[in-house]
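Worked example 3 (structure in, sequence out).
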């Protein structure tokens, strides 16, 4: 099997590279960041073009782990977020259609498409009411994948990732906690702490990608990517502090960040039917993340 991973130097993309190489898969990479890796395509940040890899090779699978994954940035620069999360996806789809139409295309969407759900757990059939430009743009990328399957016969599927974490992640809640533990004994966070998320460790996410590659019909399919476990931000933050810096304490400001949902909890029945079983609970996952943070200090 030959796989192209776009966004290969990022958090999820770099883990995909390591994982599939360990499986003996022929892995090619593409990213806007430089790399000395073999089988690597440099993509220009402006006026990006994805045709060359698909002209030169016939890939069995393309995983797109590129784009922006920052809600705040989408409010500050919605045009750029649209380019990264929608326009570039369309460019990849056109390149696949024109040069490698049998390639299976996996694109990372986000649970941000759901907004604040009316009920929990959130299934793939739940209504989508995004709270941010980022969420809207991810929903638009999903529609593009549906469009290119329906009208051009491409093999596509979208993964709605909830709260992924693990080594190499340098943003979002646990990275923020890490940064703040370096600044003082009291760690201050937005919200009340009663908000909930469904956290998934990177190794479990990789298990899901592998299962999707093997089992999805790629007919514009959409899958939740979570652990099927609802955890409060208070609990998650305390587990991290216990693992990384137990002497620190946490406070919540009661202020809310624009675009943040209140409660998330993923229904994972479809992927469980494919054989998905989470291997990491939050305590074990954050222990590994804390070890990585200590190694980079």
């Amino acid at each position: 099997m030959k796989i192209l991973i776009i966004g290969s130097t990022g958090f999820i993309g770099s883990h995909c590279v390591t994982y599939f190489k360990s499986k003996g898969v022929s892995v090619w990479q593409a990213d806007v960041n430089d790399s000395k890796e073999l089988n690597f395509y440099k993509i220009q940040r402006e006026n990006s073009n994805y045709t060359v890899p698909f002209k030169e090779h016939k890939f069995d699978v393309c995983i797109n782990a590129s784009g922006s994954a920052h809600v705040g940035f989408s409010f500050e620069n919605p045009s750029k977020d649209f380019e990264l999360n929608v326009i570039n996806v369309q460019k990849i789809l056109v390149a696949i259609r024109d040069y490698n139409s049998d390639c299976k295309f996996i694109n990372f969407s986000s649970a941000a498409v759901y907004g604040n759900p009316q009920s929990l757990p959130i299934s793939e059939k739940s209504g989508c009411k995004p709270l941010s430009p980022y969420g809207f743009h991810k929903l638009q990328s999903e529609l593009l994948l549906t469009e290119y399957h329906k009208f051009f016969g491409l093999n596509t599927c979208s993964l709605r990732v909830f709260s992924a974490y693990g080594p190499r992640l340098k943003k979002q809640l646990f990275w923020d906690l890490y940064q703040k533990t370096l600044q003082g004994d009291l760690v201050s966070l937005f919200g009340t702490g009663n908000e909930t998320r469904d956290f998934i460790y990177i190794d479990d996410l990789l298990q899901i990608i592998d299962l999707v590659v093997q089992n999805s019909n790629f007919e514009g399919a959409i899958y939740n990517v979570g652990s099927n476990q609802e955890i409060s931000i208070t609990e998650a933050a305390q587990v991290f502090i216990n693992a990384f810096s137990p002497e620190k304490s946490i406070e919540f400001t009661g202020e809310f960040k624009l675009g943040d949902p209140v409660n998330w909890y993923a229904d994972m029945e479809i992927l469980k039917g494919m054989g998905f079983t989470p291997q990491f609970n939050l305590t074990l996952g954050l222990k590994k993340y804390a070890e990585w943070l200590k190694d980079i200090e």
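Notes: The mean pLDDT is 96. The radius of gyration is 19 Å.
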